[in-house]
Amino acid sequence: MSGLPKRQRVAAYAVILSGERILLSRLSPAISADELWTLPGGGLDHGEDPRDAVVREVHEETGLDVEIGETARVYSAHLPGVWRDGHRVDAHALRIVYDGWVPVDSPAPRVVEVDGSTVEAAWQPLASVLDGTVPVAPMVLEALADHRPYRHQRLGAYALVRREDAVLLVRISARGFHTGSWTLPGGGVDHGEPPRSALVREVREECGVECGVGELVAVHDEHFSGTAPSGRFEDFHSVGLVFAATIEDDAEPRLVEEGGTTDAVAWVPVADVESGALPVLEVVRAALRAAEPRRSRSS
Length: 299
Hints:
The model has no long low-confidence stretch (mean pLDDT 93). The chain has helices spanning 50-62, 126-130, 138-146, 195-207, 270-275, 282-298; strands at 6-18, 21-27, 37-38, 41-43, 67-84, 87-101, 118-125, 150-163, 166-172, 182-183, 186-188, 212-227, 233-246, 262-269. The longest helix is centred in the last third of the chain and has 17 residues, at 282-298. The protein is elongated. The chain folds into 2 domains: 6-146, Nucleoside Triphosphate Pyrophosphohydrolase (Alpha-Beta Complex); 150-298, Nucleoside Triphosphate Pyrophosphohydrolase, CATH 3.90.79. It contains 6 helices and 14 strands. This is NUDIX domain-containing protein.
């Protein structure tokens, strides 16, 4: 095969996961006579940055706007004797594979490019890819074997606000982890932001009221994997600082956040939390338990 014309191709691809699904493109019959799915992506144009190339290629093949991680893995494949453009060549493929994600409310994927190398785009069950039910190019399995969810650790500040026998809670929207569950108002602490200042800001943004921040009553952490509001699949570690907080007696909390991770605000009877009548995150129960001795001493 040494006398064959040498062809080297550099291409960029993305592993795009959403829950238990992976976004794939089906190769055209001109590329593969049998049904075969691969990662969305493709060849770099001359002088094109690989990150720009994969964003362009994913859009052409799936119609979706992808965001790309900071790092990538590079795979090398020497393919002597393969057919390219009607001729046998000594091919060398360099494949740059990024971690990618699309917004959770993205439309269904569809092919945009005309007469390209792919004819269909779809979310495929990850289990069906791994067990061979969905036929995929070897690159897909190779990239999945090396793929690790993005590790994200977040510090948050949360408010435990009581009014008689009720506690102020917010409900998590379809854009957040644990959709439909209730939790304490609050959220992530920005870089360099004092946690108490972050809590005042978050309560204002979620509930439309100003709060006074008291003592720290609990530190709660949670570790799980899932799809973030951005669409990125993450190995997520949340560390939450729960502060006792107060609002004015005549203040009426209400939903003010639009399109975020909160879709309802309400005073919830503590009895409903303790009985399990309402789906709540464990941080709510942990905060109520931690605060009860202080509440008993003050009464």
